[in-house]
Amino acid sequence: MTTVEEDVRVPHRSRLALLGAGVMGETVLSGLVRAGWDPSDLVATDRRPERAAELEAAYGITMTSNLDAVAGAETVVLVVKPQDMRGLLAEIAPALAAGALVVSLAAGVDTGTLEAGLPAGQPVVRVMANTPAQVDEGMAAIAAGSAATGEHLERVRDILSATGRVAVVPEHYLDAVTAISGSGPAYLFFVVEAMIEAGVHLGLPRDVSTELVVQTMLGSAKLLRESGEHPTVLRERVTSPGGTTAAALRELEDHKVRAAFLSAMEAARDRSRALAAAAREQQVTP
Ligand SMILES: NC(=O)C1=CN([C@@H]2O[C@H](COP(=O)(O)OP(=O)(O)OC[C@H]3O[C@@H](n4cnc5c(N)ncnc54)[C@H](O)[C@@H]3O)[C@@H](O)[C@H]2O)C=CC1
Ligand SMILES: O=C(O)[C@@H]1CCC=N1
Questions:
Q1: Would you say 44 and 66 are in contact if contact means Cβ atoms under 8 Å apart?
Q2: Nearest CA to ligand 2 atom 3
Q3: Ligand 2 in contact with 183 (CB < 6 A)?
Q4: For residue 139, which phi and psi values (nearest 5 degrees)?
Q5: What are phi and psi of 78, to 5 degrees?
Q6: 272 lines ligand 2 (CB under 6 A)
Q7: 127 and 204 share a domain?
Q8: What is the pTM (predicted TM-score) of this model?
Q9: Cβ neighbours for 64, distance < 8 A, ≥ 6 positions apart
């Protein structure tokens, strides 16, 4: 890890500043604290004062203004919504230390758009993460902007690997990554919800149905990971000829559930592209 350079403007000498401490921002911050980062090496901001107070109390992290946070930070992590990125870049660009690494977790917003809102040559890394990082089982994909080096990618990998797995990918994969692993937890929770309701419909008490479904989801994920088998093989092992599973799967195929998943993920990919286009149109030069 490089050291923070001396800078007389610096009110907080942080290693990492995180701007936008909502759901995903807290996911990153809490993971770093769990991984043993000293809270005094972290500084964060949120434009909602009550949210800032909540995180300060929960993690002992200094919550400050965007400009204070950015000045002197060697890594600046942006976790605001894509629609709020333009304003945030314009606000922080004059205060960024030369060479500070800017990391964006926003869906859609590409590194070209980020770079256009920052001083020339500022290194940028774009990330797509997900909420299972809250239990250290996250999946993140990262891509370098034009001025980011291997050292910058390694720094981001270090930050994110505190809470799960990290893949380095070409940037043009990131809209698809967003559709699959970024939004993915929501699809799986949706399936869990549907199965719990089905259990209730079949006469199971809600708590029993919930326990059955959640453990089945967890066990199936663990079996997939630990066996290394293809999901088709694992599904076939459950599907006895003429049995109950085959009857259920036939209904899922008849209701075009597989095609619905494909359409859903195309819609997510297209929305990521639309967010990128909107962010590009909003872009301002510092
Ligand atoms: N929630 C998720 O599962 C995932 C979210 N993301 C991305 O993370 C970003 C944040 O999403 P969420 O955390 O879900 O949204 P959120 O709405 O929970 O958090 C955004 C936070 O940013 C704060 N904020 C907005 N403008 C600000 C500014 N100028 N300065 C300081 N704070 C500001 C808001 O007060 C809010 O607390 C989005 O760009 C989203 O695409 C990416 C992957 C997964
Ligand atoms: O729904 C969204 O736009 C964000 C990006 C991926 C997950 N949540």
A1: no
A2: 107
A3: yes
A4: -130, 115
A5: -105, 120
A6: no
A7: no
A8: 0.92
A9: 11, 12, 43, 44, 45
ipTM of the complex: 0.98
Please indicate, yes or no, whether residues 188 and 162 belong to a single structural domain of this protein: no
Instruction: Specify the pLDDT at position 14.
Output: 57
Could you tell me the distance, in angstroms and rounded to a whole number, from the CA of residue 13 to the centre of ligand 2?
31
Q: Which of 4-18, 135-149, 185-199, 267-281 has the lowest mean pLDDT?
A: 4-18
86 and 58 belong to one structural domain: yes
Alpha carbon 218 to chain centroid, angstroms: 20
- 240/128 same-domain check: no
Q: Which domain holds residue 220?
A: 184-255
Q: How far is the CA of 238 from the centre of ligand 2 (A)?
A: 33
Give residue-wise pLDDT tens across range 272-281.
999 988 888 8
Ligand 1 centroid – CA 107 distance (Å): 10
Cα separation, 34 vs 55, whole angstroms:
14
- Of the candidates 52, 117, 53, the one whose C-alpha atom is nearest the C-alpha of residue 82 is 117
Say yes or no: 67 and 131 in one domain. Answer: yes
41-61 tens-digit pLDDT: 999 999 999 999 999 999 999
The C-alpha R_g of the chain, in whole angstroms, comes to: 22
What are the residues whose beta carbons fall under 8 Å from the beta carbon of 210, sequence distance 6 or more?
196, 199
Residues 165 and 212 in one domain: no
Task: Please name the residue whose Cα sits nearest to atom 40 of ligand 1.
Answer: 106
Assigned domain for 269 exists? no
173: tokens are: 């994969």
Would you say residue 85 has pLDDT above 80? yes
